[in-house]
Amino acid sequence: MSDPVIAELRRVLPSERTLEDPDILDSYSHDEAEWAPHSRPLAVVRPGNAQEIQQIVRACLTHRTPIVPRGAGTGLSGGANAVEGAVVLSTERMTAIKEIDNTEQLAVVEPGVVNDHLRSACAEHGLWYPPDPASAPWSTIGGNVATNAGGLCCVKYGVTRDYVLGMQVVTGTGELVRLGRRTAKGVAGYDLAGLMVGSEGTLGIITEVTVRLRPTRPPERTIAGYFDSLADAGHAVAAIGAAGLIPSALELIDRHTLLAVDAWKKMGLSDDANVVLLARTDVPGAEGEQEAATISACFTESGASWAAISSDSQEAEALFAARRLAYPALERLGPVLTEDVCVPRACVPEMLTRIERIGQQHDITIANVAHAGDGNLHPLLIVPADDAPARRRAQRAFEEILDAAMDLGGTVTGEHGVGLLKRHGLTRELTEPVLAMHAAVKNALDPHGILNPGKVIAPCAP
Amino acid sequence: MSDPVIAELRRVLPSERTLEDPDILDSYSHDEAEWAPHSRPLAVVRPGNAQEIQQIVRACLTHRTPIVPRGAGTGLSGGANAVEGAVVLSTERMTAIKEIDNTEQLAVVEPGVVNDHLRSACAEHGLWYPPDPASAPWSTIGGNVATNAGGLCCVKYGVTRDYVLGMQVVTGTGELVRLGRRTAKGVAGYDLAGLMVGSEGTLGIITEVTVRLRPTRPPERTIAGYFDSLADAGHAVAAIGAAGLIPSALELIDRHTLLAVDAWKKMGLSDDANVVLLARTDVPGAEGEQEAATISACFTESGASWAAISSDSQEAEALFAARRLAYPALERLGPVLTEDVCVPRACVPEMLTRIERIGQQHDITIANVAHAGDGNLHPLLIVPADDAPARRRAQRAFEEILDAAMDLGGTVTGEHGVGLLKRHGLTRELTEPVLAMHAAVKNALDPHGILNPGKVIAPCAP
């Protein structure tokens, strides 16, 4: 017999919106954070518009049923993992780009629009939507906004937060409201749109987003550097900052990752380098040429064994292939537990040293890719399949990496979000009074605790 | 006999921190929004550090005494106006720049640091703090953060919000907490630091701010254009956007302002122009030369009667003098009521036309300066001194300008804040459920309603 909330959902929505097939339910039970707890949801609902989302929230409010909002399920912290008795609300049907406005340089989109689709659509108008998480080919704007997604170009252009002008959300009390604005500037009231960004569906369900765009940028030049040591690569990153430059990407790939990519794709990178830095610049003309030359000089003067500039897009793509192939190459070796700490830029070499030590102590291979220019590291903990003790060791190493990042003045999550995996870390990063402020804000905007309960912060009493 | 809260303040703080001289109290009774209501405060306290601010909040909490935080008192919306029985907390003694970090490109400052002082100190390190409100020579970072101040260069570089990484605040429950971060990226929990920005002291008292910096930028080129009509100037602004350019400033000065400047400084501007556009570009080298030429061409092709590029800083300063002299020139004509609406960029000419009509209907001279590139207009309503009926007509015109901005899809405040002057406007801009969200957040973080009560939103029951 169906749960009463399902009966109500079937009554208020077209019946095909609500799915109950167990196999389908299982496929919606978690995002990419399989390591985090998840359960089979009661149902999956796939609304077609904002009004239907409001109906769903109201039905769930009546029955005090938890709602887990979900974009493409590419999250890495478990923010979209289903909890016991929850309804998963998938925005997959809401894929309309409602408006691209050239004069105001903004777009209005439904939450299920895929990041790359928005980017292509903007390009046709001579406009650019910068935030570029690695999941851009699949992840949705709604999910990007809910997690405040970062990416490669945010070292120069900022994160999702910096591009959200306004949004429409359904609140925890079932109201459909507009927050933020369409104008370039505006300070009318509290920044509630900004508060929603990165709140991982715990304060409201996003039904529409208005994003700021930029004019299309010039083609990028890529600068690659091979290094023997992490310390040298760290100096190169600092030297670029000291030269007053802001590259449009600055990525680091460590030896473990190079070895994994080589083992798969025979690129021979690990024969020549222990650490690779990849920078990009999109400054146009002679100034851009000069900037690329300066970055290359920063590499060489910091001890790079090889450095080169490429403005040929195919050649540049080949250089970035190792970065792009890192995850799949490492996943060939076993299940990967993805970290996402951010430390002060200057601490990147020290943090990588500590990660290496933590890996040795727990007998866990930890590969690293990093948005080095931002101090945002992604240690990737590799565990042999079906090795339960190794899995437990990896989880201890995971928590120790969080502590090391905080010890260096960093944060437990740079861009992936708290979800479930970083909840304990969050309670260590934030003080009691700040956690109490979180609980107070959550209670204020979701007084019945139905919006993605148990994520980010512990569930709060109503 | 002193109020008991004053006795307690004198007990917990060094005695010279608390001022009670009536003349001094009067001088702290309002900011630049003399048009808004204000009262003589009970006392003025000038704490020397965060711990003293915490003591003040706790004393006021005990006695349920309202606290009105105040930076330099340059606000234009009455956010720092004293209410009956309040203690004014002035940050004027807290002027330390605690840290400027070159590698992390950030500064840590006390709230009373003057904007221009921070900018000069950063320049010595090859760094730049972009937000540049017109009040920059006097206004403080604390006040800038509390109001999310804008300025001229935010058309390219964003507003104060975009430069706040973290802060220390005393909450409405008397806790001293750190919000936000020091790292380039971070998504650990709700963006409470962002929520504080622009909340005008109603959610917490800022005791320290960590701001993001940029490398020093190249010298700017200035492009000036004289136009016969607002429509032509509006086309020029749209043409610059359509050309894919983001100037580092794009200001508009209307005929009333030009006449007032000429009447004072005999610059003869109004002989040649009805509307002046002033643009800047800070793109370096040949690309910058090209960008300046394109902006100049946009002016000419949109019907400018004269357009010229200047890379000589003295000549450029002379061109910007009319913009800088606008306020004092207009204040010579009588008390000025300063507006601050923001509309979609494309609506600037239509908005200026509506403002002209509203001025005629109410027999009020309304001059305009505008951050045209952002759609942020500052209509300046001039009223003869001691003319009470004209004052009432100006206030009606003020409210009608807000309605016109909203009718065009704009907002009642682009950068000055709600304070007292825009409270009615805010209730028209936001829907009931969104106002209820504001009240819920206010109650959550200031449950006893002691933080700048009556500002931004109506006071909420505890």
Automatic annotation (TrEMBL), chains A, B:
UniProt keyword annotations, A-Z: FAD, Flavoprotein, Oxidoreductase
Keyword Flavoprotein recorded: yes
GO molecular function, a single term: oxidoreductase activity
Cofactor(s) this protein cannot do without: FAD
Positions of the FAD-binding PCMH-type domain: 37-216
Family: Belongs to the FAD-binding oxidoreductase/transferase type 4 family.
PANTHER family, sorted: GLYCOLATE OXIDASE SUBUNIT GLCD
Protein name: FAD-binding protein
